[in-house]
Amino acid sequence: MAEISFPLPDLGEGLIEATVLEWLVSPGDQVERNQPLVEVETSKSAVELPSPQAGKVVRTFGGAGDRITVGEPLIVFEVPDNTAGIVGTVPKDEAPTRRVRLSAVLDED
Amino acid sequence: MSNSVLGFRQAHSPEGQAHSPEGQAHSPVAVMSMQQALNRALDEVLAENAKAVIFGEDCGRLGGVFRITDGLQAKYGEARVFDTPLAESGILGMSVGLAMAGFHPIPEVQFDGFAYPAINQIVCQIGRMNYRSRGTLPMPITLRVPSFGGIRAPEHHGESLEALFAHVPGLKVVSPSNPHEAYHLLKYAASRPDPVIFMEPKSRYWQKGEVGLANADAGGGSPTGAKVMRAGRHLTLVAWGAMVARCLQVAELAAEDGVDIEVLDVRWLKPIDAQALVTSVGKTRRAVVVHEAPLTSGLGAEVAQLITQGCFDTLKAPVERVTGFDVPYPSGDLEDEYIPNVDRILSGIQRVLEYRRG
After folding, report:
1. ipTM
2. Nearest chain A residue to B206, by CA
3. Is B329 in the same domain as B199?
């Protein structure tokens, strides 16, 4: 297994920090990609941050009311070693199915 | 085939021992994925060459989005394994400066589609500096590029750029097809005084295979040139990267129909081992070349010409190409339609088998 840390992303508009309103997941939870992780509030708005990936939550940083700076750790996931990167999926190594058959007279001249 | 004929220059440092044929009898073998094999190769390169440095987007703390550089920053420190901004032109520009200053940069472009922003540095600087400086400023750069499709990724995350790179004078281009090749070809590339574009087939990162840690070729030989992955009598399938595994599957299917296929892994796309092509097709007298890249001006044309040049008198049919289509490399939902599948390759084989001189 490998741990992947996800920092608070740049939320745009030049904002450099956000305040945690409510965690929507807890350590031990298995989350899916794009599942809402946490609600945070900036000086502009309150937003739900979607999970960048699937995985098991190992740690979350900051409780309700705590301020987190952009780029600082927000959450750590545990993922199997054979998990794909930030995009894509691990292809299945399965036996191919065929429709085309070969027919040839193989003269050995 | 000798190194000089293939265009490999002598390294400034002595050749590594990893591919010494002497180690064959008792060579240790480990089963690992290509991911792990590449990680191990980089670990050993950093340990053996104090001038080697690794950098790219997420290569440091995260260990790479495909985990190829996993654990290396912790082991070798932030001065030798580090993260860069999202700026491929900067990653390759910095590589030029580091190479001039005597380092061996091993940069990563996170996905092949992001090599385009760096193309000026790759073509106009890295490819030419040795030539421009009359050999006083070699560019010992090993550029790792996770390449090709097969992982259902969005646009820009799966391309097939080998013909683009191979066309640039001064660059060498290689693509491993399995963990054993990945380990040895990366170690070899990182020992060279010349820039090498190292195209990692990302759809093969997770498949495991045996890696002979002491020798590059189980049957002897060298890490340069092409390699016969399966011997056969009736037809040669020529491929590289992820398509080698598919061609080996096709060879098994063809055997059910009584057709004995040889699979030649080209490995080095530049310089291409013309002698190996001619030796194989000189024996089988039929050839099909398979690649993911679009047909037009793809490397399949180069392969077909080299075979035709060397085997014209004995070929039983024109060399057939089974390739991607002349469209942008599609995103994941369409890649099964785009990448040559076993039926398209079998159909190409059938066309060659059916051909009769008119």
Report:
1. 0.79
2. A82
3. no
- Which CATH number goes with the domain that contains B326? 3.40.50.920
pLDDT of residue B166: 98
pLDDT below 50 — which residues of chain B?
Answer: 1-5, 11-25, 219-220
**How far away is chain A from the Cα of B65, in angstroms, using its nearest Cα?**
5
Token pair recorded at residue B290: 């398979």
CA dihedral sign, ordered B288, B289, B291, B294 = negative
Whether B157 sits among the annotated catalytic residues: the reply is: yes
| Local confidence band at A93 (pLDDT 50, 70, 90 cut-offs) | confident
Residue A97 has pLDDT above 60, yes or no: yes
On whether residue B48 sits in a domain, the answer given is: yes
> SS3 letters for B15-36?
CCCCCCHHHHHHCCEEEEEHHH
| Interchain contact B157–A (C-beta under 8 A) | yes
Closest-CA residue of A relative to B64 is A85
Q: Determine which helix (DSSP H) or strand (DSSP E) holds B293, and give its type and residue range.
A: strand B287-294
Which residue among A4, A85, A101 places its CB closest to the CB of B257? Answer: A101
Q: Tally A–B CB contacts below 8 A.
A: 79
Residue B1 lies in a domain: no
Q: Are A88 and B353 within 8 A, CB to CB?
A: no
Indicate whether A92 pLDDT > 90: no
Separation between Cα atoms, residue B194 and residue B104, nearest integer Å: 10
C-alpha to C-alpha distance for B343 and A98, rounded to whole angstroms: 6
Which of B170, B188, B212 is the last residue in one of the domains? B212
Note down the domain range covering B236.
227-354
β-pair type (B208-212, B29-33)? antiparallel
Question: Of B154, B189, B212, which residue is a domain's last?
Answer: B212
pLDDT the model gives residue A45: 85
Residue B337 per-residue DSSP state: H
